[in-house]
Amino acid sequence: MKRKSVRFSLFLGVFLCALVALAVAAEDKYSVKVPGGLAFSEFRGYEAWPAISISRNEKVVAVILGNSVMIDAYRAGFPGNGKPVPDGAKMAKIHWAPKPNEFFPSATVPGKLVNVDFMVKDSKRFADSGGWGYAVFDYDAASDTFKPGTKAGTPPQGNDAKCGFTCHTAAKSRDYVFTDYGRR
Q: Are 62 and 94 in contact (CB under 8 A)?
C-alpha cells in the first residue's frame, strides 16, 4: 500500500511539474512586452488575420497581416482615398529566414522564424508618433520564446513603442504605412 502511495505521489509530482512548465511556455508568448509600450498580448490571434501583402530580401521573407479594421481601411481605398487609418487598426509582419522549396528549389519559402513586428493605430496613446505604436519581438528557437527587439538587432530597435516611427516617417503622407494591399 505504501509503495502505491509513493508511486502515485511521484507520478502526481512529475505531472504537476510538466503542467506548470507547459503553462509557463504557453504564457510566455503573450506575456512579453516592449518596455513602455506594446504587449504581444495586444495582438492575440494575429496568426489568423488576412494577408495584406508579402515582402522579401536576401535576409528575410515576410508576410504582412491585418486585423479587420486595417483590412476594411484598405477595402475603403486606403491609402489612395487620402483618409487616415482608423484607430484600432493593427498590422503584424512575420519574418522568416528564406529557404528553397524542397520540391521546387527555385521557389523561396519560409524557413526559421526570425521575429514578428507589430503596429497599432491609437491616436491618443501614441500621439507623439503619428498615432502609431510599434514593437518588434525577436524569436529564440532554442527556448521557443519571444523577447523585445534591441539596439543590437537588425534593424536596431529602441525599447519603446515608438521604435518604428523613425523608419515609418518616410511614409508620413500614407499615414506612416509602407504596405499596399495586394490586388485580389
A: yes
With beta carbons less than 8 A apart as the criterion, state whether 36 and 160 touch.
yes
Mark residue 101 as left, alpha or beta (left: phi above 0; alpha: psi -120 to 50; beta: remaining): beta
DSSP 102: S
State the Cα–Cα distance between residues 151 and 159, nearest whole angstrom: 8
Instruction: Please tell me the distance from the alpha carbon of residue 178 to that of residue 173, in angstroms, as a whole number.
Output: 10
Nearest residue to 174 (alpha-carbon basis) of 90, 78, 53, 93? 78
The Cα–Cα gap between 5 and 38 comes to 48
Quick one: DSSP state of residue 50?
Answer: P
25 and 140 in contact (C-beta within 8 Å)?
no
Phi-psi region of 36 (alpha: psi -120 to 50; beta: other; left: phi over 0): left
pTM for the predicted model, two decimal places: 0.82
Q: Phi/psi at 132 (nearest 5 deg)? A: -110, 140
Residue 70 in contact with residue 79, Cβ under 8 Å? no
pLDDT, tens digit (0-9, with 9 covering 90-100), for 2-57 = 655 544 444 434 443 443 444 444 457 899 998 878 999 999 999 999 999 999 99
What confidence tens digit (pLDDT) does each residue in 133-184 have? Answer: 999 999 999 999 999 987 777 666 765 666 688 889 899 999 999 999 988 8
Residue 169's nearest CA partner among 125, 124, 131 is: 131
